[in-house]
């Protein structure tokens, strides 16, 4: 069972004291530097408001933080496994290298063994870890208004075509297709469960998904058909509001979201999504029960399909719907995230009752 992190004040006090009881059980990401550390790190301590705390190194990397070179949190989490230690050293030596399974085989390693070992230790594969670090650098450069070639270099891609292809895999279109006059703007929101892509106009949020959701490129393409005008890089006020509300949510302070949303779907899908928003935090429903609530008792499969088509994660809480037997069933962001979201909301509900 994952160690339950205490409140941020307790974790910050442990960071200041370099409390060994938290070593390997919690990590801190420093927003002012973009680096994450063990709580026992000997480096100069950051301000409280610049700290974000995570369960695992994988969560830190998903949120866009780089490992500290002093306390080496990845090496510590890897323990004494020479295979993992060696690959982490290689990644540290060439953080922008475009790694592939062929590179692992050339080192005499079995890709499936590497995959399992990294998932066990970090919650992500070695190739995912390397890709996250590279693409995030490129995204940050593009958002700052720099040309594609600068982003390509920062992300460590040898060719512009390779960078465009990787970027298109993430968001469904190459960086050169993003427009400065676009009505829809895209940015990243970091969360303890990984980075999310948010797309909004000046007035409403249109999409919110975890960056590793496989359906993300299709969702972005569908959104642009529904809302013509192209995509651009930027952070309108609604994405700021969404980020602030998500921060309170993950801090266990509130499950109330007031960010204005535009729900792109059929009338039935929008009806299902609205019903999801009416399920109280800390409670769950089965697909069949949700169909009953909608007055469509034979439509549980249609409800499940609508649930899977939701493009605004967490705020439209499709994670609150379980199988008839109470199993987690499918979730586009991964069952481990669904489990954690249900746990967060159960804790919130108990706190409200006390």
From TrEMBL:
Tell me any Pfam family this protein matches: Methyltransf_1N
Q: What class of enzyme is it?
A: transferase
Q: Gene3D superfamilies this protein is in?
A: DNA Methylphosphotriester Repair Domain (3.40.10.10), Homeodomain-like (1.10.10.60), Methylated DNA-protein cysteine methyltransferase domain (3.30.160.70), Winged helix-like DNA-binding domain superfamily/Winged helix DNA-binding domain (1.10.10.10)
Q: Which UniProt keywords are present, listed alphabetically?
A: Activator, DNA damage, DNA repair, DNA-binding, Metal-binding, Methyltransferase, Phosphoprotein, Transferase, Zinc
The cofactor note from the UniProt entry for this protein is: Binds 1 zinc ion per subunit.
Question: What residues sit in the active site?
Answer: 37 (nucleophile), 318 (nucleophile)
TM spans (from-to): none
* Superkingdom of this protein's organism: Bacteria
Give the EC number: 2.1.1.63
| Keyword DNA-binding on entry | yes
> What GO molecular function terms would the record report?
DNA-binding transcription factor activity; methylated-DNA-[protein]-cysteine S-methyltransferase activity; sequence-specific DNA binding; zinc ion binding
Write the protein's name: methylated-DNA--[protein]-cysteine S-methyltransferase
What species does this protein belong to? Tritonibacter multivorans
The gene from which this protein is expressed is ada_2
